[in-house]
Amino acid sequence: MDILIAAILTIITAATPLLFAALGELVTEKSGVLNLGVEGMMIMGAIIGFVAVHHTGSASVAIIASMVAGAFMASIFAILVLKFHARQVPTGLALTIFGLGLSALIGQSMIGVAYTGIPKIAIPGLASIPVIGNILFNQDGLVYLSILMVIVVYWFMNKTRAGLILRAVGDSHDAAHAMGYSVVKIRFMAILFGGAMAGVGGAYLSLAYSPLWVEGMTAGRGWIALALVVFASWKVGRVLLGAYLFGGITILQLHAQALGIGIPSQVMSMLPYLATILVLVFISRDKTKIKLNSPASLGKPFHESR
Amino acid sequence: MTEKSEYLIELTGMRKAFPGVLATDNVDLKIRRGEVHALLGENGAGKSTLVKMIYGILKPDAGEIRFNGETVDIKNPAHARELGVAMVFQHFSLFDSLTVVENISLGMDQKSDMKTLATKITDVSERYGLPLDPHRHVYTLSVGERQRIEIIRCLLQEPKLLIMDEPTSVLTPQEVDKLFITLRRLGEEGLAILYISHKLDEIKALCDDATILRLGKKVGGVSVAEESTGSLAAMMMGEELKEFKQAAKVTVGDIRLEAKDLNMIASDPLGISLKNINLEVRAGEVVGIAGVAGNGQDELLTALNGEHRNNNPESIYIEGKASANLNPNQRRELGMASVPEKRLGHGAMPDMNLIDNAFLTAYDRLGFIKSGLIDYAKTRKFAKEVIRDFNVKTPRANVPAASLSGGNLQKFIIGREFKQKPSILVVSQPTWGVDAGAAQTIREAIREMASQGAAVLVISQDLDELMEISDRIGAICGGVLSKFYPIEEIIIEKMGLLMAGVELEDGVQNVA
Question: Rounded to a whole number, what is the distance in Å from the CA of A97 to chain B's nearest CA?
Fold first, then answer.
């Protein structure tokens, strides 16, 4: 029982950074832009968040700083891609490499610095429910925020006119332009949102998951977040499901080791990535679903003159 | 409203230049309230440029637009809609992954919630005979249904001026009649309509006045009633339109292409499955298949040309050989060529140049490969021959296919296939969106192919075209193919019944 509770608690912490980053990337991709720089934006969020908390001691300031850092990285991408029509795929890859390098530079003095982790907030009443109360309602603020963001993004995408316009831009930027919508402006906002969310996802790693700074600590989570968006076939609810599924697999390896299951740890560490590949193969078999939900203009450059 | 001017909209001296081209030069256009005004011209005459300036998509270099007598500077499409201009585009501005109601909502300036809008859509669609389910996703809809979205969207705006760009190319004769009734009624209600079309008989039937453009210049402003289709065409083309001459009938030969109880489950779950298709096409004849868009035409074409294969090889015979399991290249080797409806991305690779596009379907039959490498000299020569013989307007042969206008690309694709001298030719929508002159060239070429002994199958939504070039004609509806009738024995109204899936009883003559 204790192992189970511990496992669930760690699944939540493993899933939260994925959930943030994937939600942000989902919004970006729905607007028709493929930003492969998620890993780079996450790690910048992680280091800037950590630096901010080290200097100010305030978790809130740190979280806001990480959002700004992610959005700043995203704005570089947005300007290159939207204004200078750079190809999205190589630009995104460059952003990741840039982010990994820059974060290592900024983080040199942060190696070995300790932080207690952002405080947990117990929701009065609910937190005292036996067993599940402590699991679900005694978490840090970012976990609650991640769930709130699922609802907000779902509502925005499916219930608001702005969300409809965003989906329309992702489906056919030429048609949207012909109707008089500003494709560049809408995509710029979507990219910034994606960056801010990746930034918080990264900050969750350095502030809550393992509260310290290690170079390259995102360890490929940005790529899993990207895969999650496809796994979820661009649906918000399935991003939530997928993030917890992948979080679970990540944790499974740790607990399997703790329980002394005789599988080499390297094989276990491969699991989340292996699962990603299998899931992507499985998902892409269903053409109708892909056709219905995938943004048709994804990755295509937009030139106003055409 | 204070009506200061006799005209709803007056354009004077409209000029727009693009790098290297003067698209419109000093063009005038005046439309009265309640008038159906035709804008005539071949592809590249400047019609699209002109209407894009009215709709605020393009900024004129010079010229004045007066709306209700007042000079306006139309800044963007939203501003145009605010003034009361609505437009049905030739290339639909639709979002495939969104539903009908979401699409319409995006084009509306006054916001309303989806439920109210869906009800309004149903109302308008019923009132004007344009059936449409507001909650379907656009990618599941046929071309004809997609056009209905555009028309309904415009009508919901309650516009003062409705611009329609080639609106009837995808409708059945009955639907065209209904649309014309709708348009005339809208005209009586005071709506001005700017009607762009290549179909001269439609303009004769519907329009009051006409403005004719050629090469960016206005060459005529006439009252339609005082003109004949011939004189309109002459103004439009700058020469008398040659009457289509039916090539001398050749004796019909052996069966070249045959389908026997062909059944195909649609690979797209939302596509149309083919049910018990039986047809035969003989050497020297043109067989026409009519039908409203989205009734299995694409599926039939891809089943015949090998893009979709059937496990039972005996359901299709090509030159007497059971072929339903062969791939497109194997079928090409047997002598079959095909021209699909969609030009970019199906008939041609958009980003590849014309030479490469010529290579892709012709390399085998015409031997463009020399010791494992592409013989570019030979391929280029072939591409240039196609461009010359089919009068494809392009600066060079090595421009991307996507840079050609729809009509010119179609001429190129048709020419590429025709020049390979296939013994069987399957063509879908050969002249959709192609101007009158080019359409005539293509139709003549199709007849010419047959008279040289090829078996030709034409799938088209343009009934007039089929009546003109076919020897035998049938219709497809819901994936079921009707019987075929000799062209002499059938009239256009009966074709309408066939297209609606009604089998004619006791032969053709007895149906009243």
Answer: 31
> A158 to chain B: nearest residue by CA?
B102
Query: Can you give the pLDDT at residue A202?
Result: 96
CA–CA separation, B261 and B498 (whole Å): 19
The DSSP code sequence of B66-123 is EETTEEE---SHHHHHHHTEEEE-SS----TTSBHHHHHHHH-SS---HHHHHHHHHH
Residue A214 CB neighbours (<10 A): 15
| DSSP classification of residue B294 | T
Which of A178, A181, A296 has its CB closest to that of B96?
A: A296
- Res A235 pLDDT > 80: yes
B382 to chain A, closest Cα gap in Å: 30
User: What is the phi-psi region of residue B199: left when phi exceeds 0, alpha when psi lies from -120 to 50, beta otherwise?
Assistant: beta
CA distances from A72 to A53, A191, B252 (A): 19, 10, 73
Domain annotation for chain B: domains and CATH numbers? 7-237 (3.40.50.300), 244-335+423-512 (3.40.50.300), 343-421 (no CATH)
Looking at the whole model, is its pTM more than 0.90? Answer: no
Q: How far is B265 from chain A (nearest CA, A)?
A: 15
- B491 exposure class (CB count in 10 Å sphere: 0-12, 13-18, 19+): exposed
Would you give the distance in Å from CA B104 to the centre of its chain? 23
- Tell me the backbone φ, ψ of residue A284, rounded to 5 degrees: -75, 0
| Residue whose structure tokens are 């790098």 | B19
- Contact assessment for residue A75 and residue A134, using Cβ atoms and an 8 Å cutoff: no
Model confidence at B452: pLDDT above 60: yes
Question: Kind and range of the H or E element at A103?
Answer: helix A88-106
Residues 249-268 of B with CB under 8 A from A: 268
Determine the residue of chain A that is closest to B99 in CA distance: A292
User: Which token pair is B393?
Assistant: 């307007």
Is the Cβ–Cβ distance between B487 and B471 less than 8 Å?
yes
Exposure string (b/e) for A153-164, b if CB count within 10 Å is 16 or more?
bbebbeeeeebb
Question: What is Dmax (Cα atoms) for chain A?
Answer: 63
| Cβ A48 vs Cβ A201: under 8 Å | no
Q: How confident is the model at residue B507 (pLDDT cuts 50, 70, 90)?
A: very low
Domains and CATH numbers, chain A: 2-293 (1.10.3470)
Do residues B169 and B144 make contact, with C-beta atoms less than 8 angstroms apart? Answer: no
User: Quick one: pLDDT at residue B509?
Assistant: 42
Least reliable range by pLDDT among A169-183, B102-116, B288-302, B340-354: B102-116
Residue written as token pair 């009361």: B84
A174-212 in b/e form (b: 16+ CB < 10 A) is bbbbbbbbebbebbbbbbbbbbbbbbbbbbbbbbbbebb
pLDDT confidence tier of residue B171, bands split at 50, 70 and 90: low
pLDDT tens, position by position, B190-223: 889 999 886 777 888 889 999 998 878 888 888 8
Residue A131's pLDDT band, with cuts at 50, 70 and 90, is: confident
Burial B339-376 (b: 16+ CB within 10 A, else e): bbbebeebbbeeebbbbbbbbebbbeebebeeeeeebe
Compare A118 and A30 and report the one with higher pLDDT.
A30
Which burial class, exposed, middle or buried, applies to B406 when counting CB atoms under 10 A from its CB (0-12, 13-18, 19+)?
Answer: middle
Binned at pLDDT 50, 70 and 90, residue A236 comes out as: very high
pLDDT of A215 over the 70 cut: yes
3-state secondary structure of A185: helix
Q: What pLDDT score was predicted for residue B69?
A: 87
pLDDT band (50, 70, 90) for residue A246: confident
Interchain proximity B98–A294, CB inside 8 Å? no
Q: Report the alpha-carbon distance of residue B373 to residue B370 in Å, rounded.
A: 5
